[in-house]
Amino acid sequence: LCHSSMSFLCDLVVCINMCPAGMSIYMRKSKNFNGDRRYEGGFTLGELMTALAVVGICLSIAVPSLTALVNNNRRITSVNQMVTTMHSARSEAITRNGWIMICPSSKVTACNASAWNAGWLYFSDADRDRTLDAGENIIGVAPPEPNMNISSTEFPDYFLYRANGRILCATASTSQGQFIFCDPRGADHAR
Asked: Count of CB atoms within 10 A of residue 166's CB?
């Protein structure tokens, strides 16, 4: 039981045990000099330091896994952005009965041979010359992915969908390929 050396001020003491180590909160009903009753409560310095140490340990465990979660979500977002572009471009090629070209671009007005992580655009390539000309419409643009390295051996500069929905890449011998999405954690976490 809790007890007080100043029993003339304290007529009720309530102890609540918080852990087996004996930490407790003391709630004391006391009278001040005006005769008003009020409840006093608090923690000791040792209890406060122990609680802060536990919070610090929990944060040191949680923060690295939070960083991994953020990196995974960035990578997944980049992959989904590319897949969405591919689906949309293929659908547009079939709907328009024409070629739709997808190319890396750091600026919205033209394709340039920069890396795919600089962003990309896709447009209707009406004259089939694989360049964005003045009369051709840009259908969509993807924003840059600065913390991501996006590469493809089969599609280094562009790929396009033909009117039948099939893909055509720089080398006519193949119509398939892959993109590699690598975040700052390295090749072990690439997809």
From this structure: 11
- Phi, psi angle pair for 10, to nearest 5°: -115, 115
Distance CA 28, CA 46 (A): 19
Looking at the chain, which runs of residues are DSSP E strands?
A: 10-17, 24-31, 37-40, 100-104, 120-124, 138-142, 149-151, 159-161, 167-169, 180-182
Give pLDDT, residue 9.
Answer: 36
- Output the six-digit token pair for 138: 């840009």
Residues 6+ apart with CB under 8 A from 152: 116, 177, 178, 179, 180
Phi, psi dihedral angles at 120 (to 5 degrees):
-155, 165
126-150 per-position pLDDT tens digit: 888 888 888 888 999 988 888 888 8
If you ran DSSP here, which 8-state letter would residue 165 be given? S
